Structures
1.
Amino acid sequence: MSASAPVQPVSKTPARWWRERSVHIAVVLWIVAMVAIFPLSHGGLPFNRPVLAKVPFLIQVFMLPFQLLFPLFLVGVTYLLTRRRAVPDLATRAPETRIATRETVWLWIYGVAVLALGQIVGRRMFGEGIGLHLNGSLFGATRTQSPEEVWFWAGYNFLFYAFIPYLVFRARGYTREALNLKSANLPNDTLVIGVVLILESALELTASGIFHLTGHQLLSGASLSFLVHLLGTGLPVMVFIYAILFPRYMRLTGSAATTVLLGALSYAALHIFEYWTVYDSAPHAVLSVLFVVLTFIGPGLIKSYLTLRTGNAWVHLWAYHAIAPHVTADTPLVVKIFGIR
């Protein structure tokens, strides 16, 4: 493992990725997933998503491809903002192939165990499994959570997805740079964060209930939402996927496009137990997996591309996660849970 990752020339534009086989496979699988929804659903979805309760089935399905458009737009913006900088060679931040393979496999075994344990512990303590989103995030709350449950959710995810993996890999000798946690170009990283954050926040705020809050609710709720979501989903995603797995994907595949796709799929995989998913039958389970992947692949793509272009996992956290959407969109949810008046 190199102590200091060298740089390579600026990689080819996202438009040229269409020539890669992994992208062709991803497009085919996307189409297959979209088509599979219809025979599995029989014209209805089993999910309890209050925000979409009155939205017809066909519109809910055909919303999925359109959800990709804005993340792809942000990919283009990110490329333009970073086209003149040297792009870090993330593959050199991972160990040699044999070790990278072993670390990747064991980290995912650990991740699956954490996901499963979260379902067991959450259901026994609160009646609902622990996922990477609070009940109510994105699609509206299906029940009332207590502040104690929210803090437990945040602590569980932070401890098992962020804190422990970080300590383990630091103990194995990986530097902050090797874990994508050190900026190689702070001025450009700051520019990317600012532009992407403004664009995403503008979109999120158009549909947010944040403007209905009082001044005290806004200030207190936004601060609290930032903190609990930073611990409960922001840092866990950053460390587990973009600090540890992402460089190893690059080492194992040697392809920027494939690495971005694997990062996006990994992001979706960590959300497999969302509060609205249903696993009471085989068709419902398959539908849940399909909708999780089709819903979260877009956000995963922009998070992955931001990390690829900057070599800095912090960029995606501040530009497209910790604040937008978890402050811009989820502050009203936190205000309600904590009873902020």
2.
Amino acid sequence: MRFTKMQGAGNDYVYINAFVEALPSDLPALARQISDRHFGVGGDGMILVGPSERGDARMRMFNNDGSESEMCGNGIRCVAKLVYDHGIARKQELHIETGRGVLKLRVFPNSTGKVERVRVNMGQPILAASEIPTTLTGERVIDAPLPIAEWIANPPAWFVECGIDPRMTCVSMGNPHVTIYCHDVSKVPLTTIGPELENAATFPRRINVHFVQVHSPTEATMRTWERGSGITLACGTGACAVAVAGVLTGRTGRRLLAHLPGGDLELEWPSDSDSVFMTGPATEVFQGEWPQP
């Protein structure tokens, strides 16, 4: 089975062209095996690109623990690159079916005809607490107390050292996200706090966790603990959620340059549009063949 390794701002996945490749019946097992960084190809997960009755292609995304997610912002940019570069649909405006509906993307080819950057209409953010989903009461979760009471009542030393604001803002971009602000994002112990928040009872479908350090109304640095994958170099839907959270809490404006460990993403939530827009890189790393059992 042929595959293509791709990454967007360091968020890397193994892509399989399901237009031509025969897939095994146990896709979660394949995702775990092929994305294993020691015994497989290695990646944050696996993404299938196949036929769609609603768009140019359909994207299915699996985390490296085998769980299936609704969407991946960095992943969908690479889907657009694969669809364009590999001749599935040679159009600069593409429609890709995802777990959160059909999204519109614009590709920007370079002088050699290969896509380097992609702009995605990520759709309207979901703000209702029950639809994110969370178990919290009220219409929206904006600057609400963190769901781990002991961190607020008796903050650990690292909590104080990072300058963590003990409040959170929750947004869904088709998948659930929580944004937490701090003074020094580089010191946040993601492996300690990430799993605790991801699996907190407040979030019945688990959640993606983002810590954000604001530099100005137009610029911020973020680090991510992804649901089902752990620490990742970037999260596109998460960056969109961070942009929305910044507007909702008054910390940042409607245009935001987000610095992630794997690179930068440009976000925009225009006042005259319900949709969030994301622009960023898409890179093919290599192609190979995975031995079928």
3.
Amino acid sequence: MALDTTQSRQSFIASVTKWWYRATSPKELPSDAPFQQREKVRRARTASWILLVVIILVLSPLPGALGQHQLNIVGTLLVVTAIDCLALFVLNKRGNLVASGLVIIATIEAGLLGTIFSLKGGMSAVNLPLFDLLAQSEIVAVAMFAPGWVFVMMLVNILLIFFVLHSGALSPDLLSLMSQQGLIIFTQAAEIQVIIAVFAFILVRSADIAILHLDRAEKIAELERREIERQRVVEEEKQRLDLAIEQILSALQSASNGNYAVRVPVSENNVLFRVAYALNTLFQRMSSFRQQQAQLQQAQQAQMENYNLRMQLQEEMRNRQELARQYEKLQQATVQLVENLKAGTLPRRKSDTPIDAIVEQLVSRSDNEISSRYLRE
């Protein structure tokens, strides 16, 4: 229950703070914006709280002035408050820190001087603490300007204190005290301005240096983070590249062994997808070329077989024609032989057929018979 209450309170404070910054200061810049711009926004946010405190301090005498019916003081306080609100909600919101700071400092100085010079009977020793309120301008200067401007406001305040203490706006009792302890009174009032200026300068300067170092540390950390991220991306790219090269080498090895059906995976993870796509196209063309070459060889083989078959057919046709001629000659020789035998003679011309052998045998037999007949005779 206590934890829930604390979280609710923190959430409420965060919401109020966010609303306050949105109403009184420039928009928050991204972390990668230049340091000077982000520092300007930070100072504007710091100034918004300081201006709120200044407005509260300006309004704090208002109840007493109303109770005493001091309408001139009431009017002065309301005018100063309106000017401070203008500086807060308009100038500071737009990031015009210099203009806003000058307006606030002017209202602080003018308001205090107006209060001092409007005191009835003059400024008495009781009103000396009013000089301490001049330190407000130093706080505004150190917060909204460069830290060194606090010493300028310190000198201005010391001069104003000196001017007031030596003016005619002092009461008789303070004049009497000044004649006796004027240097001490002035020194004490000036010391407060010096102490506040020195401490404010040291604190703000230290804070600025710490913020600058923090910003540098954040930049270094961001650079280290980016470098780590870059190295991680490079390592991932290297792994993807190694995988892609391994896939390509594997595909080339398979292709060198004659397997042109292999393909290199083409995907978003393959950083060499263009090379893979080109190799796949090459493998596809080589595979198509091999198929065309095989088809061409088959066609050439079929053509050669057709040619051999045609030559065999032609040879067969020639053989048949030759056989037909031989048969015709044989038939003619046979007819001639029969006719010669009927006439009692033998063919005297050779027919270049097997009939020639028969004729030779008949001639030999005829000669033998004639020889035998002659011997018998």
